[in-house]
Design goal:
Helix content: 10-25%
Order of helices and strands: EEHHEEEEE
Radius of gyration: 11 Å
Number of helices: 2
Strand content: 35-45%
């Protein structure tokens, strides 16, 4: 499993944007499509809200990629 860490500036980052910013997808639109397809988990639970707010301390999983979000 590939483990990534993302330092969020501010209070939160939208899920589709997080996927784009760490390089898992090429664009925010592609991030929305991946979330809509039911492949993304937040803290172990399936997440289908494309722009849900991801805050420091949460873990996003997509396939074999695990993204831990930390405060900047």
């Amino acid at each position: 499993m590939q483990a990534l860490e993302f330092a969020v500036e501010g209070e939160y980052v939208e899920l589709n944007q997080l996927l784009k910013l760490v390089g898992v997808v090429d664009s925010g639109g592609a991030g929305k499509a991946v979330v809509a397809s039911g492949e993304v988990f937040v803290d172990g639970k399936l997440e289908t809200r494309k722009t849900c707010k991801i805050r420091p301390g949460q873990v996003v999983t997509l396939g074999d990629v695990r993204i831990k979000v930390v405060a900047s």
